[in-house]
Design goal:
elongated; 206 residues; Four Helix Bundle (Hemerythrin (Met), subunit A); mainly alpha
């Protein structure tokens, strides 16, 4: 009885209240993502700082025998940066109610992420040195490996979005927080890689 009176007094039916509650939940999810990305930024920032300290305290950097190639990482960079524009197309599609378009662009982005990871594995196999060679190699593998893990998570998130979208009405023009969160996460991954590319590859040329 009290629930009926409450519903009548606020002028909304139970379905409306449920929808509003769901929207509030989605807002908290987005806040949670931003908090997580902030903590990850601090973690990567710590790794970057440690790397720069080691770099400044060593004369030859990278040490002899641990040189890096530029061509493959540059290609990987183009792929990953381009994927940010591709995933944005998917987000724009779902905001127009185009679920099929969102699936297409998210699948394309996931494939680009897989290609990026394949390129990174190929690079690892052909570097000629391992994690414990010296300080540079340790920093290199830890930072690129940690970032690669984030790329893998992003690919899985995109595939998860595509999988969940098979349910009618799960994502639409009004309800697409999961899609938006995945795009934000992927942009974060791209930004981190740009910094890594500059630190590990570009700066080693000077």
């Amino acid at each position: 009885m009290q629930g009926t009176l409450d519903t009548a007094s606020n002028g909304r039916n139970p379905a409306t209240n449920a929808a509003m509650g769901h929207a509030e939940h989605e807002d908290y999810r987005l806040l949670g993502l931003m908090t997580f990305l902030f903590s990850e930024s601090l973690m990567f920032g710590g790794l970057f700082a440690v790397y720069l300290v080691y770099r400044s305290s060593n004369g030859a950097w990278p040490p002899a025998g641990t040189e890096v190639e530029l061509l493959l990482p540059a290609i990987n960079t183009v792929i990953l940066v381009s994927s940010s524009f591709v995933i944005h197309r998917g987000d724009s599609a779902i905001k127009k109610g185009d679920v099929g378009g969102m699936r297409f662009w998210y699948l394309a982005t996931a494939l680009m992420g897989i290609v990026f990871l394949g390129g990174q594995v190929y690079e690892y196999l052909n570097l000629g040195y391992g994690l414990g060679k010296n300080v540079f190699s340790s920093c290199f593998y830890v930072m690129t490996g940690f970032h690669g893990l984030h790329v893998l998570v992003g690919v899985l998130l995109m595939l998860g979005v595509i999988w969940r979208s098979r349910r009618e009405g799960h994502y639409n023009a009004e309800k697409h927080t999961g899609v938006e969160m995945t795009e934000i996460y992927w942009h974060f991954v791209d930004i981190i890689w740009i910094v890594l590319f500059a630190l590990l590859y570009i700066l080693t040329l000077f």
